[in-house]
Design a protein that fits this description.
By secondary structure, the protein is mainly α. The chain has two domains: 5-203, MFS general substrate transporter like domains (Growth Hormone, Chain: A); 218-399, Growth Hormone, Chain: A (Up-down Bundle). Helix content is 79%, strand content 1%. It is built from 14 helices and two strands, in the order E-H-H-H-H-H-H-H-E-H-H-H-H-H-H-H. The chain has helices spanning 16-49, 53-82, 85-101, 109-137, 143-150, 152-164, 172-193, 200-203, 218-250, 256-284, 289-306, 311-339, 346-353, 355-399; strands at residues 5-7, 197-198. A two-stranded parallel ribbon has the order 1-2. Helix 1 packs across helix 6. The radius of gyration is 21 Å and the shape is globular.
C-alpha cells in the first residue's frame, strides 16, 4: 500500500497522477451501486417477488437508504478517529464486493434485505473515507478541477450498467461478478499507486475554524451549502425516477431506449463542461459562483420542462436540466471540501452532507404523489423550479462575498 509523498509547500499543486487515479476510484464507487440498484436488483426482485416487486423494492429502498446514510457517517467518523482512511477503503471494498456476489444466496425478502443492508454498510465503509481522502490531499486551488473530474462518476456508473446488461454478456449471477471486478480494478489503483503529495495544512486540526469565504461564519456557509444541495437533489431524484414516465406523457411512442440515450448523452456532455467550469472557478478564485449559476439554470430548465408541449421542447429542457445538475453536483462535492471547517472531523461531516443524497429519495415519492394527480408534471416541475431558485439564492449569498 503506497505512502504519501513528501510535504508540499505553499502554492504547490497535487500531482495529476493522483487526481486522475482518485477520479477513477470515485467512478468505481458509482459503478458499485448504479448498475446494481438501478438494474440488477430490480431484475432480481422481479424474478423472486411473484408479482409483489413494487412492495419488495419499496422495502429494499427504505432499508438500503437508511443503512447507507448511517454507515456513511459512522465510517467517515471512524476514519477521522483512526487517521487511516486507506485501511477502511480497502476493507469496505473487499466486504462490499464479497456481499455483492453473495446476493444469489437470498431466497426471500428478509434474507435479501439483510444482504442488502450488509452490502450498504460495507460499501459506505469504502465510500465515506474515500470522499474524505480528497479533502486530505487536494488543495483549494484545485477543488474546481477535482469537481470536473468527479463528473466522470455518473457517466461511468451508467456505462457500467449498460456494459453488464449487454445482450449475451453474462447471466444474472455473473453480472454481479463483473461489477465487483470493475469496482476493484477502479478503486485499488489510487491505494496502490497514488502516492499523493502531502499538504499538512489540509489535515492540521483546527480548534476555532474560520470561514474560507470572507465575512461568513463557517456554520452559516456549511448550512447554506447543505440546504442548497438538498433542494437541487430533490429535483434530480424526481427526474431520475420519473424521466421515462414524463417523456411518455409528452410523446407516447418515446421508448425506454430513447430515454436511456438522452440520459447517457447528457452525462457524457457534462464531463467536458464541468471540467471547463471547474478550471475557471480555480483560476478566477470564484468557487461558489458556478454553483449558484447552475442552480439558477436548473430552475430555468424545470420551467421549460413544465411548459413543454412537444417532444423536441421536452428533450431540450431535460438536456439543460441534466447538464447543469450534473455540473452542480460534481462541483458541489468538491467545493464542500473547501468549506468544512474542521479537518479532524472531515469524514464525519461529509457523512452528514451525504444525507443530501439519501434524504431526497424519501421525500420524492410523497411529493410526487401529492402533486402529479392534481397538478400534473407541470405543477411538480414548477415546485421543483422554486426549490432550485431558493438553492441559487442561498449560494449567491455566499458567492457575493467571495
Amino acid at each position: 500500500m503506497s505512502e504519501p509523498a513528501p510535504a508540499a509547500g505553499n502554492g504547490e499543486r497535487q500531482y495529476l497522477r493522483f487526481l486522475l487515479l482518485y477520479a477513477l476510484a470515485a467512478a468505481g464507487g458509482a459503478m458499485a451501486y448504479v448498475p446494481f440498484l438501478t438494474i440488477l436488483l430490480p431484475v432480481r426482485v422481479e424474478a423472486m417477488a411473484g408479482g409483489a416487486e413494487v412492495t419488495w423494492l419499496a422495502y429494499c429502498s427504505f432499508f438500503g437508504a437508511a443503512s447507507a446514510s448511517l454507515s456513511n457517517i459512522l465510517f467517515g467518523w471512524l476514519s477521522d478517529r483512526t487517521g487511516n482512511r486507506r485501511g477502511w477503503i480497502v476493507g469496505g471494498l473487499m466486504g462490499s464486493c464479497a456481499l455483492l456476489v453473495a446476493m444469489p444466496l437470498a431466497h426471500g425478502l428478509p434474507t435479501l434485505i439483510g444482504l442488502l443492508v450488509a452490502w450498504q454498510v460495507t460499501l459506505n465503509m469504502m465510500l465515506g473515507p474515500l470522499a474524505a481522502l480528497a479533502g486530505d490531499y487536494v488543495p483549494d486551488r484545485q477543488k474546481g478541477f477535482l469537481g470536473g473530474l468527479l463528473s466522470l462518476s455518473p457517466a461511468m456508473g451508467a456505462l457500467a450498467g449498460a456494459f453488464v446488461t449487454f445482450e449475451g454478456m453474462a447471466d444474472a449471477d455473473a453480472r454481479l461478478w463483473i461489477v465487483a471486478a470493475l469496482v476493484a480494478s477502479s478503486v485499488l489503483p489510487v491505494i496502490l499507486f497514488g502516492r499523493p503529495k502531502s499538504f499538512p495544512e489540509l489535515t492540521a486540526p483546527v480548534d476555532r475554524p474560520q470561514a474560507k469565504i470572507p465575512e461568513k461564519r463557517p456554520q452559516v456557509v456549511v448550512r447554506r451549502m447543505w440546504l442548497a444541495r438538498l433542494l437541487v437533489q430533490i429535483a434530480e431524484a424526481v427526474l431520475f425516477a420519473y424521466l421515462y414516465i414524463w417523456f411518455r406523457t409528452v410523446a407516447a411512442d418515446f421508448g425506454d431506449d430513447d430515454t436511456a440515450a438522452v440520459f447517457g448523452a447528457v452525462l457524457v456532455l457534462a464531463i467536458p463542461a464541468t471540467l471547463w467550469v471547474g478550471r475557471w472557478a480555480d483560476r478566477s478564485e470564484r468557487p461558489i459562483l458556478p454553483l449558484a449559476a447552475c442552480a439558477a439554470l436548473t430552475a430555468v430548465a424545470l420551467l421549460l420542462m413544465a411548459s413543454a408541449d412537444s417532444l423536441t421542447f421536452a428533450v431540450a429542457g431535460y438536456a439543460l436540466f441534466g447538464l447543469v445538475t450534473s455540473m452542480f453536483l460534481s462541483l458541489h462535492t468538491a467545493q464542500t471540501l473547501r468549506v468544512l471547517p474542521r479537518p479532524q472531523t472531515r469524514g464525519r461531516d461529509l457523512g452528514l452532507f451525504n444525507l443530501t443524497n439519501t434524504v431526497p429519495s424519501l421525500i420524492m415519492p410523497w411529493l410526487t404523489l401529492a402533486t402529479v394527480p392534481a397538478l400534473g408534471f407541470s405543477g411538480l416541475f414548477m415546485i421543483l423550479a422554486g426549490l432550485s431558485a431558493i438553492a441559487s439564492l442561498l449560494l449567491a449569498s455566499i458567492s457575493r462575498t467571495n
